[in-house]
């Protein structure tokens, strides 16, 4: 009914909380969301498509974009850069489409600095015990790594204050419903829509 | 899971926009909401129950409560007072239950002054034309009254800026879904829940 820019939603939370599972289920149910496509310097793998799986760049190109503040966040894993291109996000929002970004806490805090108008959702574990179980059950981590990850998770939970919403991931389907309610209600915020509504009235009164 | 105070939701909007219909349908679907019970000086009618339909007070009692700022809003129709008692609302919220208030724009603005922490939802007509039709179709109003009400409605729409959300009442069930999303997401706001979540963690770490 009214023309409106899209909203950037950021789902984040401690390691092991289930961000990926929630995001996956959300995308099955909310087809109008656009997942943010990352940029990387790693090699394209067989079957991957540029602009679908990732935007593939050389290290020189990537570092130039960092300098120009063209990345909402970025990090280096092993010897490859990964990041979120500002231009792609802004162009998608401009078309009136929401963008959804699922990301680690450190990355989310970078996005918050570069794009404070985003809506930041913190996924919270039902309990520390449960979080520990989930990390252990991945089975890929040593005892020492589990302890470290749990310590890290506690630190990350302290960073909750930078977020707009807290969603507890007790059951995936409940967490997804909560995120959907946030997406819906954010589009109803008066400061986003009042101008357009008043314009509709003015047009009718002409 | 966490203990939390209830939230006061205020649904308002211009005359004829369909506030009553939306509220009624919402209450059929959201049984956990508590409808705010008004206070009045009018006589109790057969079948009505004090503390259920209204809180019934004498004019002297009511005017004393006005003086003591014990009403979130009030108005006088013909020779009777009607108002929203602060104490009832606050006690219900304290129990962790949400309170829902459906009210005229003037009353909502009074509530906003006395209880700014409420969540204010403005119900918006799909068009001025549609609003006019709805007022005319009530059939009880003269041509002159319709023109006046429409003029009034335009003024009320200008007051949208005092509200937190704008919900267009294109179809009742859509409007109700939007209000339900607002109720759900307001309970997920970080500033409401972060303290309790952090406490849960501290308790676990003891």
Automatic annotation (TrEMBL), chains A, B:
Localization per record = Cytoplasm
- What CDD domains does this protein map onto? GMPK
Q: Which Gene3D superfamilies match?
A: Guanylate Kinase phosphate binding domain (3.30.63.10), P-loop containing nucleotide triphosphate hydrolases (3.40.50.300)
* Swiss-Prot/TrEMBL catalytic activity: GMP + ATP = GDP + ADP
- GO CC annotations on file: cytosol
Per its UniProt record, what Pfam families does this chain match?
Guanylate_kin
Q: In the record, what terms sit under GO molecular function?
A: ATP binding; GMP kinase activity
Q: Which domain of life is it from?
A: Bacteria
Stated EC number for the protein is 2.7.4.8
Name the InterPro entries for this protein.
Answer: GK/Ca_channel_bsu, Guanylate_kin-like_dom, Guanylate_kinase, Guanylate_kinase_CS, P-loop_NTPase
PROSITE patterns, A to Z: GUANYLATE_KINASE_1, GUANYLATE_KINASE_2
> What UniProt keywords are attached to this protein's entry?
ATP-binding, Cytoplasm, Kinase, Nucleotide-binding, Transferase
Q: Where does ATP bind?
A: 13-20
Annotated Guanylate kinase-like domain ranges read 6-184
Function recorded in the entry:
Essential for recycling GMP and indirectly, cGMP.
The record's comment on protein family reads:
Belongs to the guanylate kinase family.
Q: Which HAMAP family match?
A: Guanylate_kinase (MF_00328)
| Record's protein name | Guanylate kinase
